[in-house]
Amino acid sequence: MKASSICFPAAVLLVLIGMVWGIQMAISQDHSAMPAHAHLNLLGWVSLFLFGIFYHLHPAIDRTGLARGQAYTWIVGTVILTIGVGLVHTGHEVGDPIAAVGSLIVLIGMLMFGWIVLKGRISERAADRSLTPAE
Ligand code: HEM
Questions:
Q1: CA distance linking residue 76 with residue 73, whole number of Å
Q2: Is residue 33 in contact with ligand 1, taking CB distance under 6 Å?
Q3: What distance in Å separates the CA atoms of residue 6 and residue 49, rounded to the nearest whole number?
Q4: Which long-range contacts (CB under 8 A, 24 or more apart) does 53-56 make?
Q5: Residue nearest to atom 41 of ligand 1 (CA)
Q6: 3-state SS string for 9-63
Q7: Which one in 10, 40, 54, 89 has a CA-CA gap of 20 to 30 Å to 123?
Q8: Phi-psi map region of 58: left, alpha, beta (phi>0 left; psi -120 to 50 alpha)
Q9: Cα of 103 to ligand 1 centre, how many Å?
Q10: How many CA atoms lie less than 13 Å away from 58 in the CB half-sphere?
Q11: Is the CB of 8 under 6 A from ligand 1?
């Protein structure tokens, strides 16, 4: 399976949950979980969709296990972070360590993405050099 095929449907699923949550917050006029809603939408929709676009634009990377691993890491981290932040902001201290674990997982997910981008740039440069005729 391609990494982008993980990112796009998961991003849509997460934003649908985030939107329903936003509507629930608006109807109940209780915005206390707003930071969790914001994190779910920005990490789960915006960032994940952007990863998907990047992978889709780089087909060789899209098919790698590392890219799939990065997408799964990001999704798991986003869900855990959202639960933790939601619990903290609704007065449940137990959410604190959960948010901490989630934040470290998304940090790992972003470091993985940074490594993927860097590796991709290095291989692109090597390919460019091999295509340039020798002087
Ligand atoms: C049906 C769709 C949505 C509804 C009904 C909704 C509803 C809300 C509500 C009621 C708040 C709390 C506002 C406040 O207390 O000041 C909020 C905050 C927020 N929402 Fe949504 N939301 C929706 C979709 C989204 C999406 C798609 C994103 C991101 C792409 C998003 C990002 C945010 C952010 C960043 C905040 C925090 C804003 C701040 O710091 O004042 N929301 N939303």
A1: 5
A2: no
A3: 10
A4: 53/4, 54/117, 55/2, 55/3, 55/4, 55/7, 56/4
A5: 34
A6: HHHHHHHHHHHHHHHHHHHHCCCCCHHHHHHHHHHHHHHHHHHHHHHHHCHHHHC
A7: 10
A8: beta
A9: 20
A10: 18
A11: no
Tell me the per-residue pLDDT of 32-77, one tens digit each, with 9 for 90 and over.
999 999 999 999 999 999 999 999 999 999 999 999 999 999 999 9
Interior angle at CA 105, CA 102 and CA 109, nearest 5: 135
Q: Is the dihedral of CA 36, 38, 41, 43 positive or negative?
A: negative
- Two structure tokens written together for 33: 């979980």
Q: Does the pTM exceed 0.90?
A: yes
30: CA distance to ligand 1 center in Å? Answer: 12
C-alpha 95 – ligand 1 centre gap (Å): 21
Using a 6 Å cutoff on CB, does residue 12 contact ligand 1? no
Q: Which residue among 27, 37, 78, 89 is best mutated to probe the pocket of ligand 1, counting the most ligand atoms within 8 A of its Cβ?
A: 37
CA end-to-end distance (rounded Å), the chain: 42
Cβ contact 89:83 at 8 Å? no
